Amino acid sequence: MKILDLRSDTVTHPTAAMRTAMAEAIVGDDVYGDDPTVIALETAAAERLGKEAALFVPTGTFGNQLAILSYCQPGDEVIVGDDSHIVWHEVGGAALISGVQLRTIDSDLGTMNAEKIRKKIRHGVDIHEPKTALICVENAHSNGRVIALETMQQIWQVAQAEGVPVHLDGARVFNAASALQVDVKAITQYCDSVMCCLSKGLAAPVGSILAGSHALIAKARKKRKLLGGGMRQVGVLAAPGLLALNEMTARLADDHRHAKLLAAQLAKIDGIVIDLDSVQINMVWFNFSREIDVDKLMQSLANANIKANPPEHGAMRLVTHWQIEEADLARVSQAIEAGIAR
Question: Is the pLDDT of residue 6 over 90?
Answer without folding.
Answer: yes
